[in-house]
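Supplementary notes for students who missed Thursday's class. We covered one full example, reproduced here. Read the sequence, then the structure, then the short commentary at the end.
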Amino acid sequence: MWVQTNPLSFNHALTGPNNVYEEITEVPPITIPAFPGVWSVSYHARPSVKVDTTASLWVTTALFKNGKLIPGSEAMCGFKDSDVWAQDTIGQTFLHDFAIGDVLTLRAYRLGQDGSAAIFSNDAGRTTIAAHWVR
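Structure (token representation):
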């Protein structure tokens, strides 16, 4: 048994405060079906970071279960430079214990003020969540 998001197309600007996760609402929540136990979870997020001056700008992503951070699901990208725009695909694969009805959501935050940051998904690179029941 597995569950996953379909191919998505979106651009979600990260505009919240530094170090505060915001839900990437364009990625539908994943609900664990009638198979409690250990699941292999994998997610990929495509951040876009543009730094306007010589400053640091970072994006951190993570998965949340029922609104709480899953430790070990965090991934980060970013840099310190000037007038640079970079894109990446970041994420994690991990094992985690779930109960029936647990809900997974993707969240992200920016760290740094000088520039723009977003999570997006299109034909050139996807943001996805997939989970496969192990036992």
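Commentary. The chain has no helices and 13 strands. The mean pLDDT is 91. If anything here is unclear, bring it to office hours.
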